[in-house]
Amino acid sequence: MSQVDVTIMGQAYKLACKEGEQAALIQAAAYLDEKMCAFRDSAKIKGTDRIAVMAALTISAELLATKAPTGPFSEMSLVEIKKQMSQMEDVLDTALSAQETLF
Hints:
Layout: E1 2-8, E2 11-17, H1 22-41, H2 48-67, H3 78-100
Antiparallel strand pairs: 1-2
InterPro entries: Cell_div_ZapA-like, Cell_div_ZapA-like_sf, Cell_div_ZapA_N
Pfam family, one: ZapA
Protein name: Cell division protein ZapA
């Protein structure tokens, strides 16, 4: 087992991984950082947890679109998936906006 240092949205993480998988983990962390920073920089989403959820949903949709030719996203283009993601983001904004006043 080895350890890899990565940075996601300016936060440093030390992650454990199997020998030989360091490069893949670093690449995955960089991709996640890119997605999360894009959501953060869009200024539409506030809060690290919400940014993480939207990045995870986006990455999941990308994965499903490439893995399952007969799955739930099989007949959708990437543009349509992004539109769906935007609609989910709006639902999350509405649902979570009341929680922002709690803190």
